[in-house]
Each structure stands twice: as structure tokens, then as C-alpha cells.
């Protein structure tokens, strides 16, 4: 389990922190076909750009990767941002395939 707060603090707004989390945790875990658990405990707010930097590339590269990413302790706002970014990334992927 990875504590997002360790990378981002209570306000997840830094795209560089999201990129670090993506490169150090998310991508290596997915490459090994492991479930990656992202724990948002203590993260009160996040930006769409943070979530985009964290998730969009993985979803675009392999939409099935979502089956291996779990989100824990997300408040309603963070959950909504995750859904927005995932939907956007999947739509973007579908357009590229056409």
C-alpha cells in the first residue's frame, strides 16, 4: 500500500509529485502485474492535473491496468476526480484506436 500523502501532502496539487508517484510506484507495480493500492488517507484535496499526471498515462497505455489499481480512503471530491480522469483517458484511448 502506498500513502499518497507521503508524495503529495494533504493537498495533492503538484504534478511533479504525481509523476514521481507514477514512475516509482504505479508503473513498476503494474509492470509486475501486481495490484497497486493507492491510499489517499490524509489527502483532503487534489487537483485534476495531479490525478491526470498520476493516472492518465497508465490508463492510455493499457486500459486493463485499472483492474490492478485500487483506491482507498478517497473522499467524495477525490473519488470524483479519479472518475473524471479515468473516463477522459479511456475516451482518449478509444479515439486513438479509431
UniProtKB/TrEMBL annotation:
Occurrences of domain DUF4325 (ranges): 18-79
Record-given protein name: DUF4325 domain-containing protein
Organism whose genome encodes this protein: Nocardioides currus
Amino acid at each position: 500500500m502506498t500513502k499518497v500523502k507521503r508524495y503529495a501532502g494533504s493537498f495533492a496539487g503538484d504534478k511533479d509529485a504525481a509523476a514521481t508517484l507514477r514512475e516509482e510506484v504505479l508503473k513498476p507495480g503494474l509492470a509486475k502485474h501486481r495490484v497497486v493500492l493507492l491510499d489517499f488517507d490524509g489527502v483532503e484535496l487534489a487537483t485534476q492535473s495531479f490525478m491526470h499526471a498520476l493516472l492518465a498515462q497508465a490508463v492510455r497505455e493499457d486500459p486493463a491496468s485499472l483492474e490492478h489499481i485500487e483506491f482507498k480512503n478517497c473522499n467524495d471530491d477525490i473519488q470524483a476526480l479519479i472518475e473524471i480522469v479515468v473516463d477522459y483517458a479511456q475516451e482518449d484511448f478509444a479515439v486513438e484506436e479509431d
